[in-house]
């Protein structure tokens, strides 16, 4: 299923204060991974009501406080979800996946919440890592991950469309039961739309694609404020999660 954005303004700012956030350190071998746990404000008194969590990570540049991830994390928590985002600056995809798995295990170990559904995702390279982890986890158990969120999936480096088959290998290997949401800009120079559409048709997983009209790889749109674009993206993600966990 493919959707395209319009220039409608989605104002979710009124909900953006209903969360609490704490810095956490996730064990990873002899090291620790910097992370932030964002939860609904009501979860302090209604802990058992929060049963869905989302893990997010950033792309090849920046960190977990990249503005789009921060906005999405706060919107998720304000909508009743737990959101754990983390920083991993390594450009080695295999290493990133190992770190991501450690974060997933940490989330599952939290005793404070009864988590029944876990969604994983990220931006750009972070979305590649989340897809690779979802593929690994689905080989072990069908319900390890409820779905995958891919913000600006980098199908190929700029001008190097020949690499799209290698970049999409994990996507094509995801199982049929796995829901995947793609959010990509129509002007993304790392995601040729024709090649991307062909890749989606080759996937076994359940896919939904939201095309941000005029959006770049950074999900910015000329003529629109960053806040209005982020509101559109956040609304798409939250709507999809609610539908996928139903």
UniProtKB/TrEMBL annotation:
It holds the Pfam family Abhydrolase_11. This is KANL3/Tex30 alpha/beta hydrolase-like domain-containing protein. InterPro entries: KANL3/Tex30_Abhydrolase, NSL3/Tex30. Residues 52-233 form the KANL3/Tex30 alpha/beta hydrolase-like domain. It comes from the Eukaryota. It comes from Solea senegalensis (Senegalese sole).
């Amino acid at each position: 299923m493919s959707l395209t954005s319009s220039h409608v303004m989605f104002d979710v700012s009124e909900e953006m204060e209903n969360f609490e956030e704490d810095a956490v350190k996730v064990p990873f071998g002899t090291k620790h991974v910097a992370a932030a746990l964002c939860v609904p404000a009501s979860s302090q008194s209604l802990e058992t009501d929060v049963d869905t969590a989302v893990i997010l990570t950033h792309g090849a540049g920046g960190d977990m406080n990249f503005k789009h991830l921060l906005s999405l994390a706060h919107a998720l928590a304000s909508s009743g979800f737990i959101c754990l985002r983390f920083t991993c600056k390594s450009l080695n995809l295999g290493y990133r996946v190992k770190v991501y798995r450690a974060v997933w295990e940490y989330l599952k170990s939290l005793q404070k919440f009864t988590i029944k559904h876990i969604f994983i995702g990220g931006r750009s390279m972070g979305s590649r890592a989340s897809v690779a982890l979802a593929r690994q986890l689905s080989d072990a158990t069908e319900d390890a991950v409820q779905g995958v969120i891919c913000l600006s999936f980098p199908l190929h480096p700029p001008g190097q469309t020949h690499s799209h088959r290698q970049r999409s290998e994990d996507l094509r290997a995801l199982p049929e039961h796995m829901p995947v949401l793609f959010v990509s800009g129509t002007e993304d120079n790392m995601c040729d739309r024709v090649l991307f559409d062909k890749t989606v048709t080759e996937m076994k997983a359940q896919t939904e694609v939201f095309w941000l009209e005029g959006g770049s790889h950074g999900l910015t749109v000329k003529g629109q404020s960053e806040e209005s674009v982020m509101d559109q993206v956040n609304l798409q993600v939250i709507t999809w999660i609610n539908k996928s966990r139903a």
